[in-house]
Each structure stands twice: as structure tokens, then as C-alpha cells.
Design brief:
The protein has 267 residues and is mostly helical. It has 10 helices and 2 strands. 76% of the residues lie in helices and 1% in strands.
Length: 267
């Protein structure tokens, strides 16, 4: 049975004035003329009008309340009965609750895994691209003219913005700001996030510095063994334009991963 009180958003003890006020607010919001003649809005408005017409008439409302209570008592008595049909209904209800709980658990796990990937892919790509950029020192910048260099700068800015956006979302989800001493004394609630904001920043910059140092160290060794035979492709010195390459790598790799994820979900 349709719950007209729920449709109007009022309590079952609502007065006629409250019912009329709720109807007017919904009518102004859901009227088809306000919603460009939407068919969905027309159906919603029809339900609202029917609910108001029923509840605004004292006799109609009294009859509706009696029918609603009768059906509610009947449903309650059936569910608490020991006959085979009642037991089957209870079993189905339990199974439905279990299914909803399992679906919710799977969806939460999928969402958490997706958010973890949102954090891992950009940062790992940043570290690896920094390592390879300073190790190989490619001559992309020197090999391009003004147009090519402009493209590199634009892509680098886009990649940096993309990286910052990803990190901001991840910081909001996985880090927290420590409470002040006064707040700590007032309550003993434990934080619901695993890392402090300061710890996450420290890890981010230390890992980036480690990638940079490792790339320089390995690059020095590879320069004498391999790279000196390819002077047209790789430079011997670290130059400022190398900073443009890691954000571009983050933009490309993370965009490819996002596309692959969407294709996997659609399949």
C-alpha cells in the first residue's frame, strides 16, 4: 500500500495545515510546467496530488488510515505465524537482507580498491618517471622547436594539475590532521584514517628524493657503460627541463589506467 504521508514528507500525526503546506511546497517543485513538461515530473506530481486529495479530506484520510493499519497488522501477524507460508516469507526476507549486506560489502570493497588505485598509480608513476628521467636524461627538449616545447610545457602543466587533484582526493580519504592538545584532552576518539597529513607529505617527498637520487646514481654508472654511445638521444648532464617529463608521464599512464578500468567495467 502506498504511504501517502511519506510522499508528502509529513508525519502521520500531521495537521491539515501541515499537509497543505507540504503539498504546496512539493507542487511548486514537482509541477510539470516547472520541469519543462517532464513525464517523470508529471507522474510525481500526480502521486503528490493523489496523496494530498486523500489526506486533505477527513473522511478519506480516516478510511485510508484504517486500511493502512489493517494491512500493517495483517503483515505483522503473517510474519510471526508458524505456518509454512509465513516461514517461507521469513526465510526470503532473511535471504534478501543477507544478499543486500553481501552486495553492500562487495561494493564497498570495489570502491575502496578503486580509491587505493587512485592513490597508488599516480604516485608510483611519479617516482618511476622521475627515476628514469634523471637516469636517462633524454633530449626531447633540445630536439623540439618552439611549438614542440610549448606542447611539452602545456602537457606538463596538465599532468601537474592532474597529479595534485589525485593527491588531494587521496589525502582527504586516507589522512587526518592531528588534534590539538586541548582537543585531545577533551575526548579520546581514535582517528578513522590511517595516516596524519604530515606523515603522508613526508613520505611523498622522501620517496621522491630517493627516486631522484637513485636515478642520478644509476645514470652515472650507465653513462659510462651504455649512454655515451648514444649522444643524440641522451644527455650527459642534468638540466631543468627534465622536470617537465614526470608530470607528463603521470598524465599519460594514469589516463590509460582510467580508460582501461572503464572498459573493464563496461565489459
Amino acid at each position: 500500500m502506498v504511504d501517502y504521508y511519506h510522499i508528502l514528507g509529513v508525519k502521520r500525526t500531521a495537521s491539515q495545515a501541515e499537509i497543505k503546506s507540504a503539498y504546496r511546497k512539493l507542487a511548486r517543485k514537482k509541477h510539470p510546467d516547472v520541469n519543462s513538461g517532464s513525464e517523470h515530473a508529471a507522474r510525481e506530481f500526480a502521486r503528490i496530488a493523489l496523496a494530498y486529495r486523500t489526506l486533505s479530506d477527513p473522511q478519506e484520510r480516516s478510511y485510508y488510515d484504517a486500511q493502512y493499519e489493517r494491512l500493517k497488522r495483517a503483515a505483522t501477524s503473517v510474519l510471526h505465524s508458524d505456518n509454512i507460508h509465513a516461514r517461507r516469507m521469513r526465510s526470503m526476507a532473511v535471504q534478501m537482507r543477507v544478499n543486500r549486506a553481501v552486495d553492500s560489502w562487495i561494493e564497498d570493497g570495489r570502491r575502496e580498491n578503486f580509491m587505493l588505485q587512485q592513490a597508488v598509480f599516480p604516485t608510483v608513476t611519479l617516482y618511476l618517471s622521475t627515476f628514469f628521467a634523471v637516469m636517462l636524461k633524454p633530449k626531447f627538449w633540445q630536439g623540439f622547436g618552439l611549438t614542440g616545447r610549448s606542447v611539452i610545457v602545456v602537457l606538463s602543466i596538465m599532468g601537474l594539475y592532474h597529479l595534485i587533484s589525485r593527491l588531494r582526493v587521496c589525502f582527504d580519504r586516507y589522512t587526518y590532521r592531528p588534534k590539538t592538545i586541548q582537543d585531545s584532552l577533551m575526548g579520546d576518539e581514535k582517528p578513522d584514517k590511517p595516516f596524519t597529513r604530515r606523515t603522508a607529505f613526508a613520505f611523498l617527498f622522501i620517496a621522491l628524493a630517493a627516486s631522484l637520487a637513485a636515478g642520478l646514481l644509476v645514470g652515472e654508472q650507465m653513462h659510462y657503460a651504455i649512454l655515451e654511445d648514444m649522444p643524440y638521444f641522451f644527455d650527459q648532464h642534468v638540466k631543468p627541463e627534465l622536470l617537465f617529463y614526470p608530470p607528463i608521464a603521470v598524465l599519460v599512464i594514469d589516463s590509460m589506467h582510467a580508460l582501461a578500468t572503464k572498459l573493464d567495467v563496461s565489459i
